[in-house]
What we know:
By secondary structure, this protein is α+β, with helices and mostly antiparallel strands. Helix content is 40%, strand content 14%.
Amino acid sequence: MLRLSLVAMSEMSFGLRLKVLVRGEKALADIPDGILPPARAKAYDPLQLSTVFRGVQVLQTAITGLPIHEVRGGLNLDTVSAIVAQPDVNRSRRDFISDLVASMVLDGNAFIRVTRFGGDPVTCEVLPPTLVTVSDDGNDPAAPKLRYSYLGHDYSSEQIIHCKFLNVPGRLRGLGPISAAREEVEGAQMARDYKAHFYTDSSNTKGYLKTDKKITPLSAQAAKDAWNNKESGKAGEIKVVGEDLTYVPLDMKPADLQFLETQKFDTTQIARLLGIPASIMLAAVDGSNLTYSNIEQSWIEFADYTLAAYTGEIEEALTSLLPRGRSVKFDWDTSRRTDMSDRFAAYQTAITSGWLDPDEVRQREGLAPMSEAQKQNLKPKEAINGDS
């Protein structure tokens, strides 16, 4: 029976297919190199690894939850433009930003197709990065003339916004954490698959029959066949061994096989690769002493050195859609919020120092400005300082 896939058969010529059908797989032995189509590689999907899935989900949640401000002259505007509020008219801004983050994490590149009307952008779509080809029509790598191809259509650099996670001079495409360390991620996937199939793999010995007496090969085979006879009873039933035979199970715990250590190492390695603190990835690190202060510090470093790499590209992409003089920035205060008591103490210091007023504090907390009655009941600065 032929085990050759239908896909490989379809790529052969008619004569070659007829030869294989007549002679079977033996016909493949005398086929010259270069004639037989190469076997198709197994689809590589890093999201099938739970640690990668969790990491992408953490990055998407952290970035899509940040408020976005439109800035002009260094001051935040009260409202944002329609193209910033909803870049893709057919989707929410949260989904739009999530696609950008996932594209940069998994591929290192995010491509935004801009549709304009009268010169002004009206909508944007995030393209699948694996379907976009980047070409240089120029002769100088320092000043490339980029052309983007997507599903048979060519686009100029004015029609496509190209966001790169890691930009390397001379490379037309950026590098992402998962694509740059593909071998490490595939190694973690192979370790996971090996662990999943270990207990069902027939090549792994589960036990053996032992006797102190001499036994002939025929008797040994008969005892083995009797033990492995699938028709001898249902699963879980008691089996009987012959005289002077003892069954010795080979119980191997996951800790003995180092499954747990391998899984812990892979989780820590991928978390380091993605730049996500182990506490956020729900991974324990040996020898670490997690306290409130160092967890808070790890969150700040996470925002400064990981999230900023993605938000910086998104801010520049959205800024390019606005009129000159305006820019887009994410509000980082929400990702670095301390506990309530420390936050209120900081607000009190800001109010008494005079560089924030109560309404500005309420705006930061998502509250409406104070009413006249509330202002009448507001304590004066002297009372807040404890002087009266």
